[in-house]
Q: What sequence folds into this?
C-alpha cells in the first residue's frame, strides 16, 4: 500500500495581516504553487493555514520540497520562523480524505469542535489568538482553582458593523463553556445593548438599560456586549466612570464586552487605559476585511451550498461588491452574504428555465446583477470612443497615458504620480470617463485590477474620534490597483479658522499619505465644480502637488444633448423619423441661459427626460395590452410637457429679464 503524508503549513498571523492589501492571500498563493509544482492534494485553506496530502513516504524530502516552494514566493522571509510545518503519515490517499472528513465532522453534540470553528474563521487573527490563549490556560486555571482570575476579566472589542461581532460573541461563549471556564444561564446567554449618546434635555439615564441587565440574580450567567461608541470621547467623564464603578460590582457574575467601531490604535489604547483604570480589561481589534478575505468568505458560502464559480463570475462578483461599497455604507460579511444569495438565486432560476442541474456559476448568468454590464463586454477604448462630446477629453487622457507609460518603461525617469482632477458641472461625464479610464489603464498594464470605487467626499469621514483615518485607509486599500473616484471632493475642506469637530482634514491627510505610498498602484480622481476644486487645492498644497493632471469637462451643446438622448433610446427601443425630429426640435429650443448655467445637470437632465419618456410609453403599452418596443412622438411630447421640465425651461427663460 502506498504511503502518503499529511502536512499542515501555518503562517504567522501578524505577518499575514501585513499582506492584507495583496490581490490574493499568501496562504492561497502558496497552496496554488504547491499543487502546481508537487503531487499535492490541498484539503483545506484558512487565512493562516493550509492542509493537504503529499504522495511521498519521505518526511524530510517532503518538508524540504514544501519549504523550497514557500521560499521561492517569499525569499525575504526565509529563516525568520514565519512558517511552521508539520508532516504526519497516512495510510492512503483515500484514508487521508477520510481523516479530513472526520476532522470536520460534527462532535457528539452535533457541532464541529468550537476551537476548530474559530480557527476556520477568516480575518480575525487577534480573536483566534485569544481563543488559543484560553485553550492553553484553561487546564491550569481549573487545576489551581483560580478560574475567577479569568471570569473577572472584561474585553474591549474594536470591530465595524458586519464583520462578525455576533459570531465572535457566540463562539467565545461556546469556547469558554466548553473549556469549563464559565457556565451560562439556560436562557438569554448573549445580550447586546447600546449606550445612547448623552442627552441632557431628555433627563433619561443613558446607562439605565445596561445596568438593568446586571441586576443581581436575574442578570447572572450572561455574556453582555455593551456598545459604547457614542461615549468614546467621554470615557474620562464622571458620568461614565460612575457607570464603570457600578459594573465593577458585577464582574465575575457576567462576561462583559465593550464594543466600539474599528479605530486608530492610539484611540483604542486611550479607551483601554480609561476602562482598565477600574476594570480588568483585554483589548482586541478586528481589522476590516480586504477584498481577498471577502472573496474567501464568499467562496466558502458558495461551496457550502454545493456550487462553484467560473473565473468570469468572480469578475462580476468583484464589480458587484464594488458597487455595494460605493455609497459609503458597507456591512462586510452581511453584504457578501446578500450578494452570494443574489448570484445563487439567478443561477438556480437559469437552471429551472433550462431544465438543468448545473452547479457551475458562469459570468453571463449573473451579469445583470451589476449596474454597468457593458463594462464587462467591451474594451475601454471602445467605450471611450462611443462617448458623445468627449473628443478633447479623450485627447488629454491619451496624452497623459502615453506620458505615464513612457515613465514606467524608462527606469531613469521619475516614477509618475497618476492622480487626477476632473472639473466641470454636474452630468458632464466625469464619473463615466473615470470608470472607463480604469478599464483602459488595466488593459494598458498600468493598473492591476482597473475596478472602480466611487464615493462622495464626506463618505471618508467617520462618526467618532479615531474612526476617520482607518476608514479612509480601508477605502483606499480596496482600490489598490484600481480607480478611487471622489465626487464633490471639496466637501472635505473646511476653513481652518472655523472651529468644528469636522474630520475632513484627517481624511485628506490620510488620502495624501495613501496617494504618495501607492502613487503608481492607485488612481485617485477628485471631481467637482471648477471653482470649488480650486479652493480645495489652494487649501491643501500637499494634495495639489500629488494631483498633477487636471481634465476639464465642458457643458454639452444642444447637438450633443440630442445625440446622448438618441443613443440612450437606441439601446432598448426603436423609433421613427418623426420621433427623432420632435426630440431634435426640443433640444434646439433649450435656452442658452439654461444650458450654460453652472447648475444645469447636462447628461442627468437628458437621462431624466429619457426615463420619463419610456415611462409614458410603458403606460401606453400596458393600457393597450402590448409589449413596449417602440417609442412614439406622443410619448416624448407627454414627457417633455411634465411639470418638472416645463418649470425648468420657464425659469431659465426668465433669467436676466424683468417684468
A:
Amino acid at each position: 500500500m502506498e504511503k502518503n503524508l499529511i502536512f499542515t503549513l501555518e503562517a504567522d498571523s501578524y505577518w499575514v495581516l501585513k499582506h492584507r492589501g495583496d490581490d490574493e492571500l499568501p496562504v492561497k498563493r502558496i497552496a496554488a504553487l504547491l499543487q502546481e509544482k508537487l503531487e499535492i492534494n490541498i484539503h483545506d485553506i484558512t487565512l493562516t493555514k493550509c492542509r493537504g496530502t503529499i504522495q511521498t513516504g519521505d518526511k524530510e524530502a517532503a518538508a524540504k520540497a514544501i519549504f523550497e516552494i514557500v521560499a521561492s514566493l517569499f525569499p525575504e522571509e526565509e529563516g525568520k520562523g514565519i512558517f511552521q510545518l508539520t508532516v504526519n503519515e497516512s495510510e492512503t490517499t483515500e484514508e487521508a480524505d477520510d481523516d479530513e472528513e472526520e476532522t470536520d465532522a460534527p462532535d457528539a453534540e452535533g457541532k464541529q469542535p468550537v476551537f476548530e470553528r474559530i480557527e476556520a474563521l477568516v480575518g480575525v487573527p487577534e480573536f483566534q489568538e485569544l481563543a488559543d490563549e484560553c485553550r492553553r490556560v484553561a487546564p491550569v486555571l481549573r487545576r489551581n482553582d483560580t478560574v475567577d482570575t479569568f471570569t473577572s476579566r472584561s474585553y474591549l472589542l474594536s470591530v465595524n458593523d458586519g464583520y462578525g461581532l455576533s459570531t465572535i460573541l457566540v463562539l467565545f461563549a461556546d469556547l469558554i463553556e466548553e473549556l469549563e471556564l464559565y457556565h451560562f444561564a439556560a436562557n438569554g446567554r448573549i445580550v447586546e445593548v447600546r449606550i445612547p449618546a448623552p442627552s441632557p434635555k431628555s433627563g433619561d439615564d443613558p446607562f439605565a438599560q445596561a445596568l438593568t441587565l446586571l441586576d443581581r440574580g436575574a442578570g447572572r450567567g450572561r455574556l453582555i456586549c455593551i456598545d459604547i461608541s457614542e461615549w468614546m470621547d467621554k470615557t474620562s467623564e464622571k458620568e461614565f466612570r460612575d457607570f464603570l464603578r457600578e459594573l465593577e460590582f458585577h464582574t465575575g457574575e457576567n462576561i462583559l464586552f465593550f464594543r466600539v467601531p474599528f479605530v486608530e490604535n492610539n484611540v483604542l489604547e486611550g479607551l483601554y487605559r480609561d476602562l482598565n483604570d477600574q476594570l480588568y480589561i483585554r483589548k482586541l481589534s478586528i481589522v476590516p476585511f480586504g477584498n481577498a478575505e471577502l472573496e474567501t468568505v464568499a467562496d466558502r458560502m458558495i461551496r457550502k451550498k454545493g456550487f462553484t464559480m467560473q473565473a468570469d463570475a468572480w469578475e462580476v462578483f468583484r464589480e458587484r461588491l464594488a458597487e455595494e461599497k460605493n455609497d459609503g455604507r458597507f456591512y462586510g460579511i452581511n453584504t457578501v452574504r446578500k450578494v452570494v444569495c443574489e448570484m445563487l438565486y439567478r443561477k438556480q432560476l437559469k437552471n429551472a428555465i433550462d431544465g438543468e442541474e448545473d452547479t457551475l456559476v458562469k459570468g453571463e448568468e449573473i451579469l445583470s446583477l451589476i449596474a454597468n454590464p457593458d463594462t464587462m463586454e467591451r474594451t475601454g477604448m471602445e467605450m471611450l470612443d462611443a462617448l458623445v462630446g468627449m473628443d478633447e477629453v479623450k485627447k488629454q487622457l491619451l496624452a497623459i497615458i502615453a506620458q505615464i507609460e513612457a515613465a514606467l518603461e524608462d527606469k531613469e525617469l521619475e516614477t509618475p504620480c497618476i492622480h487626477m482632477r476632473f472639473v466641470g458641472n454636474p452630468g458632464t461625464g466625469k464619473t463615466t470617463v473615470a470608470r472607463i479610464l480604469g478599464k483602459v489603464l488595466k488593459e494598458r498594464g498600468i493598473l492591476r485590477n482597473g475596478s472602480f470605487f466611487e464615493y462622495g467626499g464626506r463618505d471618508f469621514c467617520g462618526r467618532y474620534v479615531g474612526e476617520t483615518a482607518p476608514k479612509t485607509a480601508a477605502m483606499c486599500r480596496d482600490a489598490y490597483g484600481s480607480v478611487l473616484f471622489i465626487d464633490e471632493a471639496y466637501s472635505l475642506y473646511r476653513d481652518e479658522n472655523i472651529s468644528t469637530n469636522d474630520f475632513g482634514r484627517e481624511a485628506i491627510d490620510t488620502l495624501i499619505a495613501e496617494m504618495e505610498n501607492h502613487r503608481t498602484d492607485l488612481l485617485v480622481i477628485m471631481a467637482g465644480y471648477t471653482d470649488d476644486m480650486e479652493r480645495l487645492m489652494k487649501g491643501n498644497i500637499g494634495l495639489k502637488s500629488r494631483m498633477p493632471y487636471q481634465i476639464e469637462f465642458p457643458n454639452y451643446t444642444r447637438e450633443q444633448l440630442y445625440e446622448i438622448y438618441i443613443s440612450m433610446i437606441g439601446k432598448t427601443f426603436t423609433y421613427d423619423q418623426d420621433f427623432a425630429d420632435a426630440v431634435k426640435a426640443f433640444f434646439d429650443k433649450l435656452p442658452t441661459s439654461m444650458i450654460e448655467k453652472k447648475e444645469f445637470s447636462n447628461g442627468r437632465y437628458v437621462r431624466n427626460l429619457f426615463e420619463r419618456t419610456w415611462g409614458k410609453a410603458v403606460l401606453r403599452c400596458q393600457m393597450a395590452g402590448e409589449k413596449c418596443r417602440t417609442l412614439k412622438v406622443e410619448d416624448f411630447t407627454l414627457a417633455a410637457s411634465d411639470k418638472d421640465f416645463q418649470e425648468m425651461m420657464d425659469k431659465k427663460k426668465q433669467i436676466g429679464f424683468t417684468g
Remarks:
- The longest strand covers residues 4-11.
- The two ends are 102 Å apart (CA to CA).
- Residues 407 and 413 are 5 Å apart (CA to CA).
- Confidence is low (pLDDT under 50) at residues 91-110, 652-659.
